[in-house]
Design brief:
With 167 residues, this protein is an alpha+beta fold. The protein has two domains: 5-11 and 105-166, Alpha-Beta Plaits (2-Layer Sandwich); 15-101, YajQ-like, domain 2 (Alpha-Beta Plaits), CATH 3.30.70.990. Helices cover 35% and strands 29% of the residues. It is built from four helices and eight strands. It has helices at 15-31, 58-74, 107-119, 141-152, and strands at residues 5-10, 41-45, 50-55, 82-89, 95-101, 126-130, 133-138, 161-166. The strands form two sheets. It has a four-stranded antiparallel β-sheet, covered by helices on one side. It has a four-stranded antiparallel β-sheet with strand order 2-3-5-4, with helices on one face. The radius of gyration is 20 Å and the shape is elongated. It starts with a strand and ends with a strand. Belongs to the YajQ family. Nucleotide-binding protein. This is Nucleotide-binding protein LuPra_03133. InterPro entries: UPF0234-like_C, UPF0234_N, YajQ-like_sf, YajQ/Smlt4090-like.
Length: 167
């Protein structure tokens, strides 16, 4: 009988790349004509994994968000793992928005992944939740590859990363 092969499903954000993207966004915003004279802030808190956006009005806030998303995409940061919070009023007429960065797979998404694999009818594939990741095991490497293919084709609301493949 063949030994069990496995891989882990994770979802992480490289905080150094986020920091680089925030710095690039700040530099671009400082140079753009449409932001001249505007009070714009982008604060990245590594400890809390949050980015706070502050702008004079809704239009500028959405423009800052678009610039930041573009820089994140160019640096390979998964946009799906960025959860945009609600707009809130700040001092004066300024608007603030907090973006939280999803590190690891949330419990509800992990349960959805396990349920999805069971519902797909892959008989030899077993999935288990391990803290903030999901381990998928099978005796058949072909079944594992099929599971990866099907998982890539389904949207769980976060960016899935496959690694730690063992055979």
């Amino acid at each position: 009988m063949a030994a069990a092969a496995s891989f882990d499903i994770t979802s992480t954000v490289d905080l150094q790349e986020v920091d680089n993207a925030v710095n690039q966004a700040q530099k671009e915003i400082g140079q753009r004509f449409d932001f001249k004279g505007a009070h714009i802030e982008i604060d990245f808190d590594k400890a809390k994994s949050t980015i706070t956006l502050l702008a004079d009005d809704d239009y500028k806030l959405s423009a800052v968000w678009e610039v930041l998303q573009g820089k994140m995409f160019k640096r390979g940061v998964p946009i799906k793992n960025m959860k945009l919070g609600d707009k809130e009023m700040a001092a004066g007429s300024a608007v603030r928005r907090v973006v939280s960065l999803q590190q690891g797979i949330p419990t509800e998404a992990a349960k959805a992944i396990v349920k999805f694999l069971k519902d797909e009818g892959l008989k030899k594939v077993q999935a288990t939740i391990q803290a903030e990741q999901v381990r998928v095991t099978s005796n058949s490497k072909d079944e594992l590859q099929e599971a990866m293919k099907r998982l890539r084709g389904h949207d769980f609301g976060i960016e899935l990363m496959f690694g730690n493949y063992r055979s």
